[in-house]
Model the fold of this input.
Amino acid sequence: MLFITAVLLTGILLVVPPYLNENRTTSVVVYVRNSASNACAYLNTGVVVNGSEYTPLNKIIEADNYTYGGFQVAGISSTESAGGITVNVRIAYTSSGLPKESLQGNITAFIKNDLVSKTNIKVNNGKLYLNGKELEINVSVVRR
Done:
């Protein structure tokens, strides 16, 4: 009986950790995708809300003269290494006259703030961490 229990526990110890690790990466991608989608939806409204969480996006709306920008999440990918998880988000838009650098910076700031406020992702020394793994978010914004 002890032998069977030992075999079962060993099997569980071999199967569960890789499953949980993969689940963590999938969760991070879903979290980031939701935040990026929320940013795009907010930007497309062209309306400014007086909430501190929307400050980075409000700057974009004001620079675009409160018009529809056609923002959408065009793609998302992730890579995992021993040091952490990197999530790359690609956002496309149709507006003209917006500086791409400020778009990327402001959308990245919103996504990071949104993740920290709505998930179990923590900030330490300006870096994001999920269960001890460093999380890096790269946002690229392209005009269609």
The mean pLDDT is 89. The longest strand covers residues 133-143. The first helix runs from residue 2 to 45. DSSP finds three helices and five strands in the chain.
